[in-house]
Design brief:
Elements lengths: L10 E5 L27 H13 L4 E5 L9 H14 L4 E6 L4 H10 L4 E5 L5 H8 L4 H14 L2 E7 L5 H15 L2 E5 L18 H11 L2 E4 L8 E5 L5 E5 L12 E4 L4 E3 L7 E3 L1 H6 L4 H13 L21 H4 L2
Parallel strand pairs: 1-2, 1-10, 2-3, 3-4, 4-5, 5-6, 6-9
Antiparallel strand pairs: 7-8, 8-9, 10-11, 11-12
Helix pairs in contact: 1-2, 3-5, 6-7
Bound molecules: S-adenosylmethionine and iron/sulfur cluster.
S-adenosylmethionine binds next to strand 3, strand 5 and helix 10.
Amino acid sequence: MKDTFGRTITYLRVSVTDRCDFRCTYCMAEDMTFLPRQDILSFEEMERICSAFINRGVTKIRLTGGEPLVRHGIMGLIEHLSRHLKTGALKELTLTTNGSQLQKYAQSLVDFGIKRINVSLDTLDSDRFTEITRHGKLEKVLAGLEAAKKAGLKIKINTVALKGQTDNELDDLLAFVADNGFDLTFIETMPLGEIGGSRVDNYLPLTEVRARIAKRWTITDTDYATGGPARFVDVKETGNRIGFITPLSHGFCESCNRMRLTCKGVLYMCLGQDGNVDLREIVRASESDEPLQAAIDNALNLKPKGHEFVIDDSHDGPALNRHMSVTGG
Ligand code: SAM
Ligand code: SF4
């Protein structure tokens, strides 16, 4: 699948639910209204859409949300999708999770062919963790990480850079990932959805994070690339690699290889733009895959050149009224 800018699409991210057991301050408002259940794609519908994409050349699927592991029956979807791993059509099935359910599911994920996961963890301080996530318990996530490590999953920690928080903990975070053999990627906050507070107050540019890390650790740029938006440095003292995802201070759209399916069946071509195609009614209206494939062609033509995020004093509101948990981070 090639879009009109010549980019090949091989990666589909699927938000399996907009619900979550946490309410991270940069992601959601405290009292969120979630979608009514009848609006959400069934697992059969999700699997049918995923298979249509795999038939068109998608080789990597990431399940995300909301929190993917809180949707009831999620392991059934993972088991079904894992059949495409066995045929070789799908090279990677993975997920992004807040880690709260990992103790329960880590071994099953491995049994279904998942090799790597991303776990979001913004702080190692348990009070601060509960403050940021509003409902989360750090100890549960740490136990989940331990279970995932024991089960043999390769783990990348995603940390959203927050002013007055992340900047005080950089050394601890670096030491933690090095001790555990995890990778680490920092992410800048993106202006997605109303969160009931200011984003400018919390925005910490990764240029600052990098400069602070460089004061204590020896870092060098590397050409290492995952096909995703992160840029990496090697850390001499620990021998591991740190990624930086800088949607605001550095564009990465020119190499974008992905599309995003929401739990409602809406296909977004860009995390930061509104262009979309509604696949739910198309799959519900016909058992034939022809209309679905035609809709995917249409979506390819709509993929924009890039997003236009800005956070500063004159742009403090959301760029889009869609939370990250709807489109899937
Ligand atoms: N609940 C899972 C989790 O937290 O990993 C998966 C969904 S979450 C929306 C995916 C990622 O998006 C997380 O790493 C989270 O920190 C990040 N995220 C959420 N809102 C964000 C925002 N406004 N800007 C930047 N990253 C955000
Ligand atoms: Fe939930 Fe993930 Fe959003 Fe936090 S970042 S509220 S864990 S969806």
